[in-house]
């Protein structure tokens, strides 16, 4: 009897189904999937949410890797924004 409350039929743990949902999500959900956390000072002085969707010409700090102190964070501006595919950032190129 108790296990029926713990089971939610609308949620799956299947990796392929979650991947399919992620890449085929509607645009209003894609905005929140591709959102970034706000800095502490912006979080305190504004009424925005903790997660802010990307917008054109928005400046942000890009930190890479697990050890942030060893790498210098890059500051860039969003140049182009394709929610379904990629986000282009000024002065930031992916290597490899």
Automatic annotation (TrEMBL):
The keyword Membrane does not apply. One of its GO terms (molecular function) is structural constituent of ribosome. GO terms for cellular component: large ribosomal subunit. The keyword Ribonucleoprotein applies. It comes from the Eukaryota. GO terms for biological process: translation. It holds the Pfam family Ribosomal_L26. InterPro entries: Rib_uL2_dom2, Ribosomal_uL24_euk/arc. Keywords: Ribonucleoprotein, Ribosomal protein. Residues 1-25 are annotated as: Disordered. Residues 1-15 have a biased composition (Polar residues). Gene3D superfamilies: 2.30.30.30. Belongs to the universal ribosomal protein uL24 family. This is Uncharacterized protein. It comes from Myodes glareolus (Bank vole). The lineage of its organism: Eukaryota, Metazoa, Chordata, Craniata, Vertebrata.
């Amino acid at each position: 009897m108790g296990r029926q409350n713990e089971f939610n039929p609308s949620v799956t743990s299947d990796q392929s189904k979650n991947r399919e949902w992620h890449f085929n999500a509607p645009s209003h959900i894609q905005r929140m999937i591709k959102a970034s956390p706000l800095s502490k000072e912006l979080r305190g002085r504004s009424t925005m949410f903790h997660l802010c969707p990307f917008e054109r010409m928005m400046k942000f700090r890009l930190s890479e890797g697990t050890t942030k102190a060893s790498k210098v964070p890059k500051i860039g501006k969003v140049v182009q924004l394709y929610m379904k595919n990629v986000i282009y950032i000024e002065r930031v190129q992916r290597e490899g």
